[in-house]
Specification:
Elements lengths: L4 H8 L8 E4 L4 H12 L4 E7 L6 H14 L3 E6 L2 H8 L3 H19 L4 E3 L4 H14 L3 H4 L5 E2 L10 E2 L7 H10 L16 H14 L5 H30 E4 L3 E5 H4 L4 H15 L8 H12 L6 E3 L5 E5 L2 E5 L19 E3 L4 E4 L4 E8 L2 H10 L5 E5 L7 E4 L6 E2 L9 E2 H7 L4 H4 L4 E4 L2 E4 L18 E8 L1
């Protein structure tokens, strides 16, 4: 029993003996077994116990943990919290609230004592129960593989790992170990209550399934091991797909290149979305298959509306080939588009000359006396931020300005037909947040050119053009 525990501690859990470990000790047989094993293998341990105050004997459990730590010459930290009140205010189940408060406490101690990890006493029984809970609720490979010997849970800490040295050992083995070593674990009566989901899985579902296969728990445990290996392969594939699909990521948003994203198989797309959601919401959101399906359907269909709400305040936003996953659009940078400076609504132009815009953009303009060369350049140009216009159709009263209410525009290629500039922006799929301060080249009330899109029909080059004006907008 526990013959290979030393290699599990060092290799699977990645623990070293010259740095402290926070051991989350409840006082039950699993955690007491863990504590004795860490001591016998020479690890530096600080015992941490969180009193949930949910049972009448909770204080006695806390005292028993302190005494056990003292007998083993370990320092101990005990804290308590009002789990029921926290569950009520955060609209969580008692189970989830207790888990959140316990892990936050453990991570606080790990940061306080500069610990290498937080060790907990999860066993193979806990693994089976966890896999079944995920299955009943609905889960993919990440859920069905269960827990790992060493993992980081970002909602609690982005660096400090949680380690589970007893994950390959059964609860019965920890009970026998405690008896053999004179340990006196506490019995948590709440483990018998059917009010909690895990307890119903443990005390009702598993015994029922064992009536079909007496070795059912072994089957689930082996399956989780197999799926864990498959999950590792998938994570390697996902890392490669992430590199080719992600344009930018911050704590506030992740942007995908939809042309690269949609080349991946649908299952991989769902994993990409899930990873992005976990990055933006490290505290966790309850993401189900239907949410991921809505997200991938949106990304794969460019004709859908430009944004959809997903879950937990997360939304998807489409801007050209970019797909943003975010909570707040104000977090997005606007510098990749030309914008009028915040302190100016109108900038008069001098020919030739240049003007500075926001975000490092600038507009340059010059006169071309060779109309034939201008016509040749205009026909071969594929940069929508360059344009050649008929100088005779314009005046010196050119200006760069933001749009005005009621502005109209006659886009080139529409035979002089006018439309509202607001409608043109919509048709051109110009991102809404960029529209109000998008720079327009104007002559009085007439829009001469919408940079990045089209010039006006009336100002186009023609066979009778004798002199051209050249405008170029670029970002330095």
């Amino acid at each position: 029993m526990f013959e290979n525990i030393e290699s599990v501690l060092s290799e699977r859990c990645g623990l070293v003996k010259d740095r402290p470990i926070i051991a989350g000790i409840s006082g039950g047989p699993d955690s007491m077994c863990l504590l004795k094993i860490l001591r016998d293998n020479g690890y530096r341990v600080i015992v941490a116990h969180f009193n949930h105050k949910l049972r009448s004997d909770a204080d006695a459990d806390a005292n028993a943990v302190e005494q056990a730590a003292s007998r083993m010459n370990f320092a101990s930290v005990v804290e308590s919290g009002d789990v029921r009140e926290y569950a009520r205010t955060e609209k969580l189940s008692i189970e989830e609230a207790a888990r959140n408060m316990r892990y936050r406490f453990l991570m606080e101690q790990a940061r306080r004592f500069k610990a290498q990890a937080v060790a907990v006493g999860h066993t193979a029984d806990d693994q089976v129960e966890t896999v079944l809970m995920h299955f009943v609720r609905g889960a993919g490979l990440a859920g069905l593989k269960g827990m790992s010997h060493r993992t980081v849970i970002p909602m609690f800490d982005k660096e400090i790992p949680i380690v589970r040295p007893l994950l390959d050992f059964w609860r019965e083995e920890t009970v026998v170990y405690c008896a053999a070593h004179g340990l006196r674990p506490r019995h948590d009566l709440s483990n018998d209550s059917l009010d909690f989901f895990r307890n119903r899985v443990r005390n009702l579902l598993i015994p029922a399934l064992e009536s079909y296969n007496p070795r059912f728990k072994d089957v689930v445990w082996r399956t989780s091991h197999s799926l864990s290996g498959d999950h590792e392969i998938l994570m390697n594939v996902l890392d490669d797909a992430w590199k080719t699909s992600i344009v930018h990521q911050t704590a506030e948003f992740v942007s995908f290149d939809s042309s690269s994203f949609t080349k991946h198989p649908l299952g991989l797309q769902r994993h990409l979305v899930r990873r992005a959601m976990d990055l933006i919401h490290p505290q966790g959101v309850d993401v189900n298959f239907a949410t991921l399906e809505r997200a991938t359907n949106f990304i794969n269909d460019p004709k859908r509306r430009p944004r959809i709400d997903l879950i937990g305040g997360l939304r998807l936003l489409r801007e050209g080939v970019l797909i943003y996953l975010l909570t707040d659009e104000s977090a997005l940078s606007i510098e990749r588009w030309p914008q009028m400076p915040d302190d100016s609504n109108t900038i008069p132009l001098k020919l030739p000359g240049s003007v500075i815009l926001s975000g490092g953009w600038q507009l340059s303009c010059e006169r071309w006396n060779m109309a034939s060369l201008a016509m040749e350049q205009a026909r071969s140009n594929d940069d929508p931020f360059q344009v050649w216009l008929d100088a005779n159709a314009t005046s010196d009263a050119l200006e760069l300005r933001a749009r005005h209410a009621g502005d109209r525009f006659e886009p080139l290629g529409m035979g002089g037909h006018e439309m509202k500039i607001s409608d043109f922006f919509i048709n051109a799929k110009l991102p809404q947040r960029a529209r109000d301060r998008w720079p327009l080249l104007c002559m009085g009330d007439k829009v001469v050119w919408v940079p990045g899109h089209r010039p006006a029909h009336s100002f186009r080059l023609t066979d009778s053009t004798r002199q051209a004006l050249y405008f170029s907008m670029s970002r330095g």
